[in-house]
Structure formats: structure tokens, C-alpha cells
Predict the structure of Cytokinin riboside 5'-monophosphate phosphoribohydrolase.
Amino acid sequence: MTQPPHDPRPATSDDEELLEAETTAVLSEFTDAQRLLRIQDELRAGFRALSHVGKAVSIFGSARTPRDHPRYEAARRLARQLGEEGYAIVTGGGPGIMEAANRGAREAGAISVGLGIELPHEQSLNEYVDVGVTFHYFFTRKVMFVRYASGFVVFPGGFGTLDEAFEAATLRQTQKIRYFPIVLFDSAYWSGLTDWLENTVRRDGNVVEDDVRSLVVTDSFADVRAELDAIEHRRPRVAPRRAA
């Protein structure tokens, strides 16, 4: 049987095909109406699936972190400890740091949540997810990360990880959320970012000191728990930029 010629172009998503279309015919009112319904359905599915999780922590980090990396084990251990203290663990449901955190939650007997995303190269939820929801739109997924978590713990990662961290920082800065810790775990990785925020962004007048100090950089599990405990008791607290 004759095989079709290889197409070197990367796989595309429905959104990409829509945005790259040369004709405006696809941008019909009917298509927009369908999108609105899809957004509504995604929000409803997320609310339904996560309504029972109770207090939770969202843990982020690179999908490229291998299982034999120290950060993988750190994320696994931290999630296990938080799970033993009654927190559900919420991740993006993928491999790497996300898998490690879901694995730690499973080991602790805590609720292990994975919020997946449809991508051109499909990525399935990892094997340690107990409650899984897959989203088409990034922004509906982000609603769930913030809506059902008491705070974020952000391990080293790339653009997706940075996106989640800065999204939460923006919500805090604008007081859309108030009692919400954002902990950047692994000071060796994050110190360059926080130095830039302090010495360039703040000095240029684009943020204030409290904006930078609200990002807690640490290597300590105890610091993570302390930040979450402070929020659980509804006591707003600004921690030092680098925990001792």
C-alpha cells in the first residue's frame, strides 16, 4: 500500500487552524456561539469535578524534569507531606514535577488532581492522577488552579510555569486574590528572577517593594507549610523575599 507523503509541519490545534485561516468565513457568529458553549461546559465540568476537594495546593514545575532528578524527589516528598497534613494536591496532570507531586499525594492518601490541557501533540494525564479534567482553553484551566487552591508552590520550569506564577502574582498585586501565597521553590533557580525584579523592575518604578517580597523564595519544606498555615488562619503575611 502506498503511504501518504510525510508532512513536516507540526500538528495543529483547532484554535491555531482558526487563527491562521485566510478567510473570515470561519469566524462566523455560529462558531463564536459554539465556543461560548464550550467555555461554559469546561467551567461547569471543572467546578463539578473539584467541588469536593477541600483545601488544596497547586504545585507547578517543568514537565521535562526526569524521575531521577533531585527536584522530582523534592516535589514528591513535599506533596506527600502536604497530603499527610490534609491538603489535596493539584497539578497540570502531566509528567515531570507534575507527576512527582501527584505521586506524593497518592502515597499520602490525599486527593490527587490533574488538570490537563489539549495540545497539538497530545499529552495524557499521568498515572498518579485520581481526579482528572482535561481542558481545551488555558484560561478555563487557570480558573481552577486559583479557585480551588490555598496557594501555589512553583518548582523550576519553563514558559508554562512562569505563566502560572506571574498570573498569580498579577492577581495578588491587583487584589483579585488576597490571602494567597506564591512560593518559588529552589532558590538557586529563582534568585536570578527575583534579583531582576528587585533591581530592574522595581527600581524602574514598575512594581513596588511589596510586589516583589510577596514572592517567597525558599528551599525549605517548613517555609512552604508556614506560608500555607498563615493563609489557613486568614492572617495576611508578607514574608522576606528569601527565606532563611
